[in-house]
Amino acid sequence: MTIALLVIDFQKGLVATDPLPGDAASVSANVRELTQRARAARVPVIFVQHEDDTLVPGSEAWQIADAAQAQDRDYFVSKRTPDSYLNTALGATLTQLAIQHVVICGYASEFCVDTTTRRAAANGFTVTLVADAHTTHDPRQAARHGGHDPRASQSDAVEHAQLRPAHHRRANSGYHVLRSVTRHAYCPSRRASSAA
């Protein structure tokens, strides 16, 4: 199954400017880890950037946050609504790359991340939402959507090439929730085929 990593609205004006969103440091580290591992596995990294009056294309606030380590070889999609598919090039990009499975992280949990997760599932993609790699400024929503596993350990990071298709499936939702970047984002090829 062909996989892509979608990094939604992880922009300087949203995640790297005071006041910082919930768990900003750990979420930034997890997004960085996801992008690094995706590239090492030759998984396409697609950055979705929101545009509006405060996130003007080309402005400092509009730029991808440094933690995500955007590279020229990555793909970039601009949007103006919470839906990363609506009036954007995302659908065409995923089709061009023959993507069947999207792994989603970024900002804001209850808006753009949620809307894009639901839309991807409705469009027939296998979807994995990485619980400890998305955030928001609303502390109530962060607690509700985060579902972080306090037992996850940085030393448990798996250093293999393939994204795991599913770890926890939400009943009838069409998407999966990955509880921890470091424990579950990548797995050995022998386990990947049995987990699919």
UniProtKB/TrEMBL annotation:
Residues 4-141 form the Isochorismatase-like domain. Residues 137-162 have a biased composition (Basic and acidic residues). It holds the Pfam family Isochorismatase. Keywords: Hydrolase. InterPro entries: Isochorismatase-like_dom, Isochorismatase-like_hydrls, Isochorismatase-like_sf. SUPFAM superfamilies: Isochorismatase-like hydrolases. One of its GO terms (molecular function) is hydrolase activity. This is Nicotinamidase-related amidase. Residues 137-175 are annotated as: Disordered.
